[in-house]
Amino acid sequence: MSGHSKWNNIKRKKEKADGAKAKVFTKIGRELAVAVKEGGADPKSNSKLRDCILKAKSNNIPNENIQRILKKAAEDGQSSNYESITYEGYGPGGVAILVQCLTDNRNRTAGDLRHFFSKCKGELGAPGCVGFLFKEEGNILILDDGSFKEEQITADILELGAEDLIHNEENEYKIITEPKDLEEIRNQLEQKNYKILSAEKKMVPKNFIVLDENKDSEKLENLYKLLDMLEDSDDVQDVFTNCKNLI
Predict the structure, then answer these.
(1) Confidence of residue 223 (pLDDT cuts 50, 70, 90)
(2) Alpha-carbon gap, residue 233 to 236, rounded angstroms
(3) Partners of 189 in the beta sheet?
(4) Is residue 184 predicted with pLDDT exceeding 90?
(5) 41 band by pLDDT with thresholds 50, 70 and 90
(6) What is the dihedral of CA 140, 62, 232, 70, to 10 degrees?
(7) What domain range is 55 assigned to?
(8) Strands (E) located in 104-211
(9) From 96's CA, which of 113, 133, 153, 167 has a CA 20 to 30 Å away?
């Protein structure tokens, strides 16, 4: 899925505010804690943790904050009880929505999400109700700092077995991979001295729904409101939809 959505633009503006930044710090802090619990506190031997640290730095989290989170997570050990849960539902206009969460209280999280969907004219559904409308793909972002020409990058990623290369307006290249190949391709690119900005798995729609900007203006307004509410929840890590208007 190329380009930048209106939703991403909204997120970027929100994250400039102190309150939104605090929420971003909280969300990434949870990811760091879970990564430490699952694979240890050494990023050299824990690729998931290494990528979480990259994500933290790309969101301007100070290094001392990152180290403090890692130390606390290592000390807490098995006491960290966050679990990863994906919720599924339909937003206004029948838009399919996947909500990836990290929570220490699934009853609280499910109740909150049910309230958000209901308030915005949507419906939280049963597991599997919209998941089949999405597929998982690996996304690697590398910095376009002039060190490599696009022809060289294209040749390298094809050699490594990546699926596609997309250049965006922020001096970044997005490399699309099979989910199972993400870690290996990321490591190979790093060995070739590419500047890795992030590496993570994303859910992308197989097909899209288009809402009419005029006829469906109320549905779109409720959809944006729902996405805002989901993004503001500390338990929500990521949100994916199949609404073409958001691209």
Answers:
(1) very high
(2) 5
(3) none
(4) yes
(5) confident
(6) 80
(7) 6-79
(8) 123-124, 134-143, 164-167, 172-177, 196-205
(9) 167
Phi (first) and psi of residue 163, to 5 degrees: -95, -35
How far apart (Å, rounded) are the C-alpha atoms in residues 216 and 26? 34
Exposure b/e, 231-246, CB count within 10 A at least 16 = b: bebbbbbbbbbbbebb
Domain of 35, CATH number, reads: 1.10.10.200
**pLDDT at position 1, please?**
37
Domains in the chain: how many in total? 1
Percentages of the chain per state (helix, strand, coil), in multiples of 5: 50, 25, 30
Residue 50 domain flag: yes
pLDDT per position as a tens digit, 93-126: 999 999 999 999 999 999 999 999 999 999 999 9
In angstroms, the CA 237 to CA 230 distance is 9
d(CA 189, CA 138): 14
| DSSP 8-state class, residue 245 | G
**pLDDT digit string, tens, across residues 128-154:** 999 999 999 999 999 998 899 999 999
The amino acid at residue 38 is E
Q: How far apart are CA 197 and CA 220, in angstroms?
A: 32
Q: Does residue 205 fall inside a structural domain?
A: no
Closest C-alpha among 108, 91, 129, 114 to residue 225: 91
Cα separation, 198 vs 143, in Å, equals 10
